[in-house]
TrEMBL record:
GO terms of biological process kind: ER to Golgi ceramide transport
InterPro entries in alphabetical order: STARD11_START, START-like_dom_sf, START_lipid-bd_dom, START_lipid_transfer
PROSITE patterns recorded: START
Main location: cytoplasm
UniProt source species: Anopheles maculatus
Keywords: Coiled coil, Cytoplasm, Lipid transport, Transport
Highest taxon of source: Eukaryota
Domain START: 113-311
Protein name, entry field: START domain-containing protein
One term under GO cellular component: cytoplasm
Protein's cellular compartments: Cytoplasm
Gene Ontology MF: a single term: lipid binding
Length: 326
């Protein structure tokens, strides 16, 4: 327990260069906060599921079995995922360059050429690696995760990762998400605010997000390949960093998804049982602020595997009763 302080000294129990909280207590407090957020999320999911089941029962009694699924297929233009509508935006050169760089890095192996990747989670098909890196004493360890999920396509996985309509369902620490620049249907700029978890300061992140279909044919055997790339942006037209109560997070993230079908199957004949989605998730995050390095690494080690399992499980649940989207 943290000792009682004079009210004037309460700031000493918060994240900062003068914080008096021991690192183990800092970790325990953040871990408790994250566990409570996860419990609340699970309750929301159960209540939402019960509501959806009730609605499905009502609809099915009024309509034919296929009626409710038809309008669940996103109606998007043919050039969605090509960047065609975003190319006139001033951010496009950066978006195109970062996406290309991140895809190249995501395709590279781990544990080769002494590149420093360390396996820290190995759970069935899911493997997670990190490299320990710091900038000015702040942990920015790059993360690379490899996973295989059955029953969904690459586009479906990326669709639920990109579209803000679903983000609160799987990103547990999210408090608010705003679209500050609607660049194109496949390219958005977000300002996300995260829930404060005592004693850490509240965080926000400003980043562009771009969803793209990859057509370079470098992924042998893949039926199709889609990516979502997120990257922090400091455009002067957008809300500035560290001006209010929030500490700004700086991030670069890419989700690479590949659909694989068994021999003899194609996108017209495959069923959900035939679908295999190979996932590569890479991220580099500078959390800002003054959180202790040992605490950050301990939290990442626990939370990253939970995040990837939660997100992929959510997509499988969302897609299992819907038409396949390629």
């Amino acid at each position: 327990m943290i000792k009682q302080l004079d009210p004037a000294d309460v700031w000493l129990t918060r994240e900062g260069p003068h914080s008096t909280i021991p690192e183990d207590e800092f970790f325990d407090a953040v871990e408790t906060g994250l566990d409570k957020i996860e419990e609340d999320r699970q309750l929301r999911v159960r209540l939402k599921y019960q509501s959806q089941q009730s609605q499905i029962s009502t609809v099915s009694s009024l309509h034919s079995p296929n009626a409710e699924t038809e309008d669940e297929i996103p109606q998007l233009s043919e050039d969605f995922g090509t960047g065609a509508q975003a190319k006139s935006h001033k951010l496009w050169p950066e978006i195109d360059r970062i996406c290309t760089e991140q895809l190249t890095q995501a395709r590279q192996g781990v544990g080769e050429d002494g590149n420093g990747w360390q396996l820290f989670a190995d759970e069935g098909e899911m493997k997670m690696y990190r490299r320990e890196e710091e900038v000015d004493g702040m942990v920015i360890d790059p993360l690379k995760s490899c996973h295989v999920v059955k029953g969904v396509t690459a586009r479906e996985m990326c669709h639920y990762f990109f579209d803000p309509a679903y983000r609160n369902d799987w990103e547990t620490t999210l408090e608010d998400v705003q679209i500050v620049d609607n660049v194109a249907p496949d390219t958005l700029v977000f300002l996300q605010t995260y829930k404060r978890i005592w004693p850490a300061s509240q965080r926000d992140a400003l980043f562009w997000s771009h969803m793209r279909r990859i057509t370079d044919n470098l992924d042998a055997g893949a039926n199709d390949v889609w990516i979502v790339c997120n990257h922090s942006n400091q455009n002067e037209e957008y809300p500035p960093a560290n001006q209010g109560k929030c500490v700004r997070i700086y991030l670069t993230v890419i989700l690479v998804c590949q659909t694989y079908l068994p021999p003899g199957k194609d996108s017209k004949t495959a069923t959900r049982d035939d679908l295999t989605c190979k996932i590569t998730y890479c991220s580099t995050v500078n959390p800002g602020g003054w959180a202790p390095a040992t605490v950050l690494r301990a939290i990442y080690k626990k939370e990253y595997p939970k995040f990837l399992k939660r997100f992929t499980g959510y997509v499988v649940d969302q897609c299992k009763a819907k038409p396949i989207m390629y």
